[in-house]
Fold this sequence. Notes:
Elements: E1 3-4, H1 18-27, E2 32-35, H2 44-54, E3 57-68, E4 71-78, H3 84-94, H4 96-112, H5 117-124, H6 133-142, H7 149-157, E5 170-171, H8 172-181, E6 185-188, H9 198-211, E7 215-220, H10 225-237, E8 241-245
Amino acid sequence: MNIDLHCHSYFSDGKLSPQELLSEAHKNGATILALTDHDHIGGLEQARDNAVQYGINFINGVEISVTWRGRTIHIVGLNFKPSSEFVEILEKNRNGRIERLQKISDKLQKKAGFSGVYEGALALSNQADNVSRMHIAQFLINQGYVKNREEAFRKWLGDNKSCNCRIDWINLADAVSLICTHGGVAVIAHPARYKLSATALRNLIEEFINAGGIGIEVASSLHSLNERLNIALVAERYNLYASAGSDFHGYNDFNRTLGKTYELPPICRPIWDLF
């Protein structure tokens, strides 16, 4: 399926510029694309200009980090109209990233003897205020400390791992409200990634819907076939629209092809029918 509503440029933790991203998506046959950088919309205008050139239907997007019951959850916003207020709230949400980088760097030095992480990760980020664990992982790979990104997160950087540090992000209701009041639709990103219990997932979805959310990412590159089928059933149960995204970052992403995603199960209602 040549529809991709979840990908990243170097305005967050992706490798490619918006121009390069659209060129790659065009080569891969994309027909609809949303750029969803983490807490940043600085690349949307460039991406849209290039989408016109390639005949791609471009959708405004963002991936907002939220704190929900002590966990970090990602909410994708699609088809919104940005404002100065929108930009300011995203900027506030990015403020904790430099502090987190320093704390993770200190932990990696103390626990693993990895030096130069703070400076190295910053050098890899095009936007200093949006430096992420992805940049830290890439630095560790470049230095030979780990073999790949999966090892970096499995050993050191993943949620609940010894060198990770949490950030207090915007709360779930405020993030969904921000998207909806700007004419957009809110989507729970890659829900299987959070490894929630059935009860926790139900609580998340109910709070999300009560805040105005209407979508859930079913066809994610991070989801197995069984996970896609299960989430499709969840979408049907809660009357949610289904979204699809590669979560492409450009760092030799395993099983992630920009502009291409898995087909939605037949029971799903595609969220792009709303655009």
